[in-house]
Structures are given as structure tokens and as C-alpha cells.
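Email to the structure team, subject: inositol-phosphate phosphatase model.

Hi all, the expression group asked for a predicted structure before they design truncation constructs. Nothing fancy, just the C-alpha cells so they can compare against earlier work. One-line instruction: predict inositol-phosphate phosphatase, return C-alpha cells.
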Amino acid sequence: MIDDFLTENAENAGNAGNAGHLTQVEAAVRAAAAAEIMPRYQQLASHEIIEKSGPHDLVTTADRRAEEHLTDSLTRLLPGSVVVGEEAVHTDPRVYDELGGEAPVWIVDPVDGTRQFVRGEPGFCTLVALAHHGEVLASWTYAAALDEMAIAVRGRGATLNGKPLHAGSPAPGAVLKVAMSHPDFTSDAQKRALLGLRTAGIDARPCGSAGLEYLAVACGAQDAIAFNWEFAWDHAAGLLLVTEAGGAQSTLSGATFRITGGNDLPFTAARDETTRDRVLAALRTGA
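Reply from the structure team: attached below.
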């Protein structure tokens, strides 16, 4: 079922009445943003912004409505699939267990970078990934305010607005640009590891939208990320995007990041293996 779904029929891809499934998912992501997110961009009323766990953890009407929109459209496209969305899990944490189930799973973050969205800044995106048996098979990263759509399919590469993405490698001897987790979301042990990035040869800064940080790595505009949290909706789409653009990733122990959790944190994703190893070495020094 999954293999058939991921087979884009090139002959029909340009036919709106019979588009391939990948094209239909892209259309669904764009439609959710057009209907629920962009009409509220820079137009949010105060009652549409709610704190969840604190002032840095926000949800808006746009988040909730867009997730509902995507849940309906994506499960229609792939009957028998389920959705693990950030807002649904906040309501019922048991939904997260679907990541380890038998059904194909859509992993959804309707507005990644909610704080930026609330401030009326363009640095937010919608993240959708399709996974099965713990493996991410395809992903869509849509920055509606920037008009950027990045798509990755396992084993078939990554594109940005239809053009191939290649992460490339930093210039020899260049200072590495690394986006890292905010200190306020970091345990003491993880904070020590992240402090290892404050070293010669690395320019580390707090991250913005995780999805856009991954896109920057896949484009070669940034060298790596180092994050200490593991919610699948923040990372599934971006990790596939980076690896399909030629990049590499690893947890602190050297393992591949698992979307089902239990990872040794922090973890990193980088433009190439050499950069990944440099970032890992710095994190381990701090730890």
C-alpha cells in the first residue's frame, strides 16, 4: 500500500484530475495553509493565542484548524492511515503511540515556529511526514509566507520548489554555522553538551523554527543543527530532507535518530559526515 502510494505517476502528475499521490499531498498542505494559516498571518486576535505549558509554548487557532484540515485531507488520500499531530497529542498523549503501530502515520506540525507566527514574522512552516514502522518515507516542508515548498522522498532525493537540493560541504577551514536548542528547553546535562559548541571553529546560535533550520542545512545555507528534544513532528520531515539532500545525522551515542523516541540527546544533522562528526565531537566534549 505504501509503495503504491509513493509511486508518483509521471504521466499523470500534471493532470489535475489524476495527479500522483505526492502531488496530492503537496496540494493538501498548500490548501491547509491557504485556508487556515495565511488568513490569520499578521491578523491574529488576542483570543486566538493560547499558552500551553508556558509563555514560550504557544498554540493559536491557526495551529488547531490547520491540523484538523490536514487530518481530514491526508487520511482521505491514504485510507487506513492515522495522524500524529502536535495539537492532537497535546489533547491526548496516547495518540503518540501510533508512531509504533502497524498503520501508516502522517506526522504533522501545522505551524512550526508558532512564536514567529504570533509575532507576524515569516519564519514559520508547516511540516508533514509519512512514516511506516518507524521509518520516515516522505516529507513536505512548506513555508507559506516565504513561498517555499521542500519535498523529500526516501531514496529519491530532495527538492525545493521543484529544483534538486544538495547540501554540499563547508569550505575547508570555514567556521561552522550551527543552530542549537534554546537553553530554556534544556536539562543540565544536555546544556553542558550544547556548551561544547561554544568553541573555536563553531558559530552556534539559538534556533528558530526547527523545520526551517533543517531546510537551511539541506540548502547549504547553514552547516548543522544540534537539538535536545525529540518530538517527531519537529524532526521527522527535516531529518529526511537533510539526508536526502546528501547530509548526515546522528544522536550523541552515534545512533540514527528514532522518531519513536528514546534517543541519546542532543543529536545533530549536518551537511555532510565530516561536519556531523565535528559537531558530535564538540557535543561529547561538553558532555
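The first helix runs from residue 2 to 6. The chain has two domains: 2-164, 176-286. Ping us if the truncation boundaries need rechecking.
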